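Weekly structure sync, notes
Attendees: PL (lead), two postdocs, one rotation student
Agenda item 3: pending single-chain targets
PL asked that the sequence for the first pending target be pasted directly into the notes so everyone works from the same version. It is reproduced below exactly as submitted, 593 residues in total.
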Amino acid sequence: MRKRFFILLVTLLCHCAHFAQVNGTKPQGDQSFALSYDQVGYPALGGKFLVVNQTTDAPPPATLTLKPLLDQSPSMTIQLVPITSWESPGVKKWGALFEGAMMPGDYAITIGEHPASQTLHVGTDGYTKVLKDVLRFYYFQRASVAIRDDHAPQRSRPLGHPDLNLKFYPVHSGATRAAPGGWYDAGDYGKYVVNAGITVATLLSISHFAPNLIGDSSAIPESTNNKSDLLDEVKFELDWLKTMQDEKDGGVYSKVAGLYWPGMVAPERDIQDRYLFPKATNATLNFAAVMAQAARVYQSWDPDYAKDCLVRATKAISWALKNPNQKVPLVKDGSGNYDGGSYEDEYFWALTELYLSTGKKLYLDYLTGKKKISGLSNIQRLLARPDIHGPADWGMGEPPTTGVTNLAYFSILSSPENAAPIDVGAVRMELLKYGNSILEQIATNPFKVPLDRAEFVWGSNSIAANKGVVLAYAYQLSHDRKYLDGVYEILHYLFGRNALSMSMVTGHGFVSPRHPHHRISGATEQLLPIPGMLIGGPNQRKEDHLEYGPCLPEKCYLDERASFASNEVAINWNAPLAVMLATVLNEPPSNNR
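Predicted structure, written out during the meeting:
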């Protein structure tokens, strides 16, 4: 998903948009309170924190009660505690923390004397369903293939964007190139190497956390081939990435896109010419990094495929070292520009992955500064003094992030046997340090999410989710329960314990986005969008220039097709959500909080 500072067909889209700001749901019996909690479920063990928001001058509630629906167990009542952080005009908040184990099942909720219209679910079975949909999202994003009815009942569609005769941008000489396949990047139909690399790298970490969690029955065409559907789906994207590499020199073309944003139409109805955009340093480095990583992951699954990935990675890094500042031409329409400015983080990531996969001194020499990269004099500091202080993204995070350096650190920690003489202990210490700072953010936030108000910007939900990935790694490294609890807290936020009192994932929860900025969903006759898509979330900058009205940062959200600033979906946003879900679901039942 890209930054697009313009109005995207607002007139057309608003005609069919659901034009209403989501302000949370309230108990039907009383409009004085909005209940914010995880609408998918809480694990049976450990604490269950809920937030009550009072929006009128009604007498404040004193208690919150949970009553099992299907057995005769006694009710559980807890005193509500005022929440004073993030005070908002006209809104008061109380917290309710239910500690200890609870029997799995559904519970009626009563706020003071007021029954809530919704129930609370105890058990992680809901998370299992969400993870399946979060990963199946990538099947629905497949380009250049038909989505078959036997794999997606009622959501089938014809082949769109064959991408067999792409014109070269900006100068078209008559020559064409084929680059079929891959995933559509977000709500539009562009395909971007940079974001593909980040997404694939994040998804492949699941094979490290939970190698046996994702089976072979996800209802994708490759299912029942006795191989993980996760690796099958990621291979579909890797295969497309390979079509983007120039076999002669190793450089990688940056993206495939049209020159105009299409309307809210299905892929097969977007018939504009498609273009292959020039080779770029950042695209080539992302390609090199993820191909080198894939070489390790796929080695035991398909050695020949892994070998090809590594050969391509070495060709790509050779091109990038000779072309250290090749940028993509900026365009105002039809596609985004994934360019984070400096490529220091991309070089660090690519060289790290290649060193871990080959052990060649050449790559280590670049990392340690013994060999220099033109225009980059300080890359060695990233290895000498590990610095993990923000979530991973493509380098233009707002507030600023560390770009993709975290992905390099994650791989070092996942492959310590290949990392010597890199100081793995220093990287581990730095990651745990940043994990602790994330936990501090969670502790001081009224909704227990590691977001300051300044972080409610483009993709705020992904900022939280990528911090969850850091906590997932911290838990794997330390086995300290507090980091796993932090992952749960972020999931609870994304599934409803937030200022909007809604699940941020389509199709899951009592209230979830109905009109995401997603052309495949918007173009079908389905009443509901494809399930399992994480939306961008509250964004106080409102780059789509729609009518949000006055809103606090944590509530600047519109459930509208036109709201690409707050309601778009993207492949790189679903990936960290998948990692968090896989982390908690991989725990044995006896250890699930």
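Discussion points:
- Confidence is low (pLDDT under 50) at residues 1-29.
- The radius of gyration is 24 Å.
Action: rotation student to compare against the earlier draft before next sync.
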